[in-house]
Amino acid sequence: MARWHFDNVPDDLDQEMRAIATRDRVSLKAAVIQRLRTHESHMGDTRLSYEKPTKTPRTPHMAKPEREEWVRYWVECGGTREDGERGYDYCLQNGWKLSNGNAMKDWRATIRNWIASQKKKREEQHGQVSKAAARDERNKQAIIDGFRAAARERDEADRPELESGTNDGTDG
Of 129, 146, 165, which marks where a domain is finished? Predict the structure, then answer.
């Protein structure tokens, strides 16, 4: 943050100048200049200096991993060696940029996200297969239930004839 400050001025005077600037709704620089003009004898050897804001240092470019380091980390995260080598070649070919065109900042995070994405895709594909299997199982069960219902109806149709027969368990 940029800050005006006084050289060779006690802190209480510095605070006073800041209070004046706030009260008069002027910049600190304007308040100090006004003070210097009106009280030159009291200010003596005082100089106003400006402290430039420090720029935030740029993040250094990502250190590109060696192929073996990349593949080793890929396997540690649960991927296969072949996929790791393919992933390394892909990144090398695309200039270590992400799919959106931004420069890769952390290759380890890229690997973790890549593997998590692969696992999610596999689970979705597996889920689709199990949905189909579940549908087949429901259809099979419906057919079996249909046969059982038909057999029950047939048995019930045969029973009244047996019950209405003359053999009621009594003689005569």
Answer: 129
